[in-house]
Amino acid sequence: MAAPRLIIIGGGVAGYPAALRAIRLGAEVTLIEKKNLGGVCLNQGCIPTKVFLHTAAIFWEMKRASLFGVDIPKGEVNFPVLLDRKKKVINRLRAGVETLLKSKKVKVVQGTASFVESQKVMIQETGEVLGGDKMIIATGSVPSRISIPGGGKISLLTSDDLLEIKSLPPSLVLIGGGYIGVEFSQFFNRLGTQVAIVEVLDQIIPTEDPEIAKGLRKILEKEGIQIFTGSRVEKILSEGEEKKVFLATPSGPREVMAREVALTVGRQPFLDGLGWGKIGLKTEKGRIVVNERMETNIPDVYAAGDVTGGVMLAHVAMAEGERAASDALGIVPSPSPCAIPRCLYTSPEVACVGLTEEQAKAKGEIQVSRFPFRAVGKASLMEETEGMIKIVAGKKYGEILGVHILGPRATDLISEASLAIELEATVEDLAHTIHPHPTLSEGLGEAAMLLRGGAIHLP
Q1: For this structure, is 437 an active site residue?
Q2: Strand arrangement, sheet containing 301-303
Q3: What is the mean pLDDT of residues 198-202?
Q4: Could you tell me which residues come within 8 angstroms of residue 335 by beta carbon, excluding any fewer than 6 positions away?
């Protein structure tokens, strides 16, 4: 019996994991990518931004090295070297993906795929037509844009542009205070740029617990970042090399001058050139509509990752890609994970999973604990005591509904909380789990202990 033929459109973090999963299930896989393997995450998102943030964190630590008994001459950031390192890291990881696909005998085709019919696509650059038994669309996303008076006449940067900027601007306004805007704000600010964030909603990182967002805002403002929430940009005008940004804020009109202005209002699914209308593919608000098994309305055509417009996170896209490949090849996937961690790589970090306090309250009676990092020995010796671990749990049974962390290594700590929610653990379970000392993870155990008789290291 011939191996089923699977065509995957897009080689990002949904596409290439889908290819590897399909190969393991015995399929013959062709992966079509018009630019670079690794997609948004590797080339314009997760990896390059974290390269930037890691440099900013090292630079910041140098400034306070004397706290740890280390004398370091005044340092400076060599921006061209940083850009070169970013490129080297991306190339190294991209080569790793290429090698992995080659070793598994995935056929990689460079080009832009457009549907001819539901089981056939044409490569626009060559005219080659490829057919498959099953199709997976994983074309990713692009930076979102909004219309601003005056913005059409002024060069507004995107998050992609900020990663390619050749020198540090003296000042920068970021329109959008979600994850993307907040991460860039701290990177540029720590390297000497005067930064302002403008967010139309009432808090930065609007999808997260307000208490955590408030704590992060306080830290960013302490570092010198201006933050305008509940505010919108009315217009932008040029004044020589500078740009004047006119704001409507809760306290009245404001004006902010900056050398550069960037749109960091999120990302949107990318469907351009796909020819989805030819096959009657159902879309809604610019995204491909799928069910929980990643099936579209067209038989044997699946979609995964950012193009479906759900939670636009790399680890979600990976899981969806594998799910789509499994279902396409007749393996009924396990239920979708209920615990999806959300990570922000500022310093201190933010990591959340499950329901916010407000969301949990809407579902029933709850109990909440807050354990400060100042009471964690490891955080104290690291001189990183700002922030807390917050646990939201059911009142009656103590089931863990949400965990929200603002503090050092939060993005690593959240995995334990994700597993706890996935396994329907209770605060009793977490409180009785032995956490090694001295570690930051002790804070999770003590946050649970607060709901079960009291923590060890709080009065």
Answers
A1: yes
A2: 107-110, 28-33, 5-9, 134-137, 301-303
A3: 97
A4: none
